[in-house]
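Same chain as my last thread, 68 residues:
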Amino acid sequence: MPEILLCNRQFGLNSIESQCGVSASEITGFGCTANPTSLLPYQPYLLGAAPSYYDRNVMTQLGAGGNV
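reply #2:
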């Protein structure tokens, strides 16, 4: 099961690393973009070095509000 990060406000990667202990290299953003520069509110992000096709599919469905 993928780990998904969903923030309620925008975060810079330095904030995520210091507050949550999550490295920027472990975050994949919506649209399968690896290493985003910041995390936008209410957008799903996957945690893990190599997300699978299934993990990215789940994230896509969440990012589209489940209307995929």
